[in-house]
Amino acid sequence: MSANVFAAPVSLQTARLLLRRNTPDDAKPMFETWAQDPEVTRFMTWAPHRSVEETHGYLEYCTTVWRARTAFPWGIVERETGALVGGIEARVDGHRVEFGYVLARRVWGRGYATEASRAVVALALSAPAIQRVWAYVDCEHTASVRVLEKAGLVREGCLRKWYVPSGFGVPRDIWSYAIVKEPS
Ligand SMILES: CC(C)(COP(=O)(O)OP(=O)(O)OC[C@H]1O[C@@H](n2cnc3c(N)ncnc32)[C@H](O)[C@@H]1OP(=O)(O)O)[C@@H](O)C(=O)NCCC(=O)NCCS
């Protein structure tokens, strides 16, 4: 992946959320509130974490990619409570930014994924070198499809047998969703 075309800030604020770079202290809440929850990881390529050490390993990955500026994982903090409730990550590849998100089950349905996604999409599109912001989603993951649509992305097509989510263990179809910068 290429770096340095997208100068991501270490934190971003929305009406109800703070997106901020993770710290090692996040491992415990991250593990306890979502990383070990099979309902949360059902459509993810990674399996539920079995120990907090595994979550520490993910945080080391976060440090590495932030340093390399190839990807920008932010923790999602609920501003009202200060609680870490999820994560969202933007991955840079040339003129493209791909993103993905995860939230603890107890905060689903509050519009947080949409709010965080809109912020990351706007940030990515504000970078002159970025022309395309995209995400993929399991064709049957209705909640995440809605998030992408509400964040302004448009369905492009189906990629059949594209990924293997941990909750299924077999290749499944995905929708590719994107928003592209119109020529000026
Ligand atoms: C997918 C996920 C991020 C959605 O987060 P969220 O904050 O609850 O999403 P929002 O509240 O912003 O929007 C959810 C939308 O999906 C809809 N929705 C939720 N559950 C649904 C379901 N079972 N069927 C249909 N629609 C559903 C909501 O009604 C809402 O749409 P609306 O505003 O048009 O009513 C969250 O469920 C999650 O973290 N899941 C586990 C990780 C994951 O799968 N990540 C995405 C991988 S692509």
What is the averaged pLDDT score? 96
CATH superfamily of the domain at 11-135: Gcn5-related N-acetyltransferase (GNAT)
In what range is the share of β-strand residues? 25-35%
Helix percentage range: 25-40%
Number of strands: 8
CATH architecture of the domain at 11-135: 3-Layer(aba) Sandwich
User: What compounds sit in this structure?
Assistant: coenzyme A
Structural class comes to alpha+beta
Profile the largest sheet: 8 strands, mixed
Cα Rg: 16 Å
Query: What is the overall number of helices?
Result: 5
Q: What's the SSE pattern?
A: EEHHHEEEHEHEE
- Cα(first) to Cα(last) distance is 27 Å
| Top-tier CATH class of the domain at 11-135 | Alpha Beta
- Strand ordering within the main sheet: 1-2-3-4-5-6-8-7
**Unreliable spans:** none
Q: What gross morphology would you assign?
A: globular
CATH fold naming of the domain at 11-135: Aminopeptidase
